[in-house]
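The records we work with from here on pair a chain with its fold. The integers have meaning only within a learned vocabulary of local backbone shapes. A complete example follows; check for yourself that the lines match position by position.

:::
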Amino acid sequence: MTMTQPKLRTDVETAEQAGALIVKDPVHNKFYRFTGTSALLLKTLDGNIGPDDVPGRLAQLANVRISPQVVNQFLQRLGEMELLEGSERPLETQHRHTDDILNIRLKAFNPRRIFDWLLPRTSFLFSPAFFCISVALMAAAVYVSITRGREIGGSVLQLITPSGLPEFLILALVIGAVHELAHGLACEHFGGPVREIGFLLMFFQPCFYCDVSASWMLPKRQRLIVMLAGNYSTFLLWTGATLAWRVLDPQTVLSHLCVSVLLICGLSLFANFNPLIKLDGYYILSDLLEMPNLRPRTLGYLRSRIEGSRMNVTPRERFTYLAYGAGAVLFSLSLLGSVLWIAGGYLISHFQLAGLAVVSALVVAPMASKKKPDVLDLVATTARVSWKKFRKPVRFLALLCGLVGFGMIPWELKVSNTFRTLPARELTVAAQIDGQVAAISVEEGTRVQAGQPIAALANPDKFADAAKTGAELDAARARLAVLRAGSRREEVERLGAAVSEKELELAHARDPETERARLQATIDQRNTELTYAQQNLARTTQLYKSGLVPKVTFEHDQETVAVRQRQLDEARGELAVLLQIKSRDAELRQKELQEARSQLDLAVAGPRPEEVQAAQAEVRRLEAELSFLNDELRRATVYSPADGVVVTPYLKNRVGQFVHRGEMLTKLAVSSTQTKLEIAVPEKEAADVAVGNPVAVKLNSYLGRPTLTGRVAFLAPEVDVSSGASFVRVEVQMERHADLLKPGMTGFAKIYCGKRNVFQLATRRAMSWVRTEFWTWLP
């Protein structure tokens, strides 16, 4: 929203005879003859009287004559309020829009057609029903943001990435356009014409603006509604985005878009309600204080005070100018300094000397310009007045001596940062075996003693392995006992009888004479029968040749010889087979006898020492394995290693989870008479900190407590990097107030690093930067 204070172009006749003032109303293009008191016109300009009432009210005083002195006082008052065009401006120098580097207008157009189309379609926005519904929705959105603040914050942090910058810029432009249209709609709804909508760069950020200067002619209530309309629309967008985010799936694109809208609307509301920026908050404050052109008038008053001139202001105005001026100057200089610091650091670190030249130009160019931004013009005025006061040699030397004397004053160097209270000793209780958490017997805040059970783990495989190993150990011990006892008498006698039996069997196997004699007799008989048959065949052959016997008898005798020959061969074969079988049987019986004798010898001699040693080794191995398994089973119950307090939250929720060996189950804060604080000291400050430096501590939890003291006990040997910044971890020993300090408490600490003069304290950062930065530029 852009607003300009109403300025009346005046043509004044200040003759004694007339004593009248001719005023032109630029809104209605009418002239009025004013002869009454100045209070009526000021009240009209403030909006308590509408512009349509001006002719009638002025006509009531048309015949009243006033003196030229009253007219001059009235004109002077209008000039001080910057309500006269063409008059001299003692309180500010006129600037064009492009002269302010923080507010540069680029292009504008007349939105007449846009509002003519929107007004009849958006009249419901100004109804009481819509207001009640929107307020209810806003209350619901505020409730959601309070109850779900952590989730919203986490989602916002995930979206803040360089890749999401284009999306943020586009959404910011859209939300800004809705904001400005809301101002324009409200102004048009109450009868104020909007003649300009444009594009500008405010604080180097592209955005839209809507000129609703005509709202100054509206009554005060309607004017405030116009000013609040933009932020009300932004609040409505924030409400819709909050409620939509609550019902949408967090992983969807629409949910991410709602989070972006939440962030942009929040930043927009913060910026627009800031009265130190010429946005809605500034105009609302100006209207509530009934001080048009508050910022230029404030800076003009400050400039007059610096230059030594006195303005005729009331005590209320003086307080307002001083309070608002201090805030506006500090805010503007801080903003410009921050932008210059960030941009300058980037340019110098990346471009060295060229970057330094650009930064110097950015500083010198606005200061050297004839038309400076308002705050820089105030700074230039201060510098100019100071130079006039101290340019004389005597004053300059006195100032220089004063500065040198002030710079030599000793002052304590303090390194400050937040801290976190550490327990004197923090123990981690971990699982000793793999297993499932079967039971938890403590919870967060429980005070435990050394040896007290904390948790129980279940591992069925360990129990099965232990039972199996125990059975194997029993079997091995039995074998060892048998070896150590040796053979029994009964066993020796049994083995001796077996040897005797094997010897008898061997003797029988080696003595086959009976069977051999029988077979030999059979062979002899078959041989005799064969001889007889051959002799009979010889006689039969002679007789057959002589024809004395028939052929049948001859053939019968031949067949008999053949039969007797076969019987003889079979008897001889049986003898040969008998001899082979007896030979193999004798060898087998010999081997069995040797084996029986060996067993008898072993039984008589007892076990070998090597066998006993092997059995003993097997028993020892199984005993060690069983001992290990039993120890594992004992470790299934987790005990407290020391006296302390359980600090792990939601510990009972781990019941049923599977944990691995070495995985943390809980943490114990071990109580002690000494407590330590951990301070993250920036790397650039670490060189000034030493062991033994005194430390002053303020706790966030006990604001009414006195400042606690301690000393630096330890500096970490390495630098920690967090969020792009380098820190050195410093531990502070607090020997007292152990019962007051609890682990995890936070606060603010100051480390006293010894006396330095004021000049060293003021320039040490700059000198450190010069030593490190400019050294890299040297060949």
Notes: The longest strand covers residues 708-722. The chain has five domains: 10-80, 102-291, 425-459+636-665, 487-606, 672-777. The CA atoms of residues 251 and 471 lie 57 Å apart. The chain has a mean pLDDT of 76.
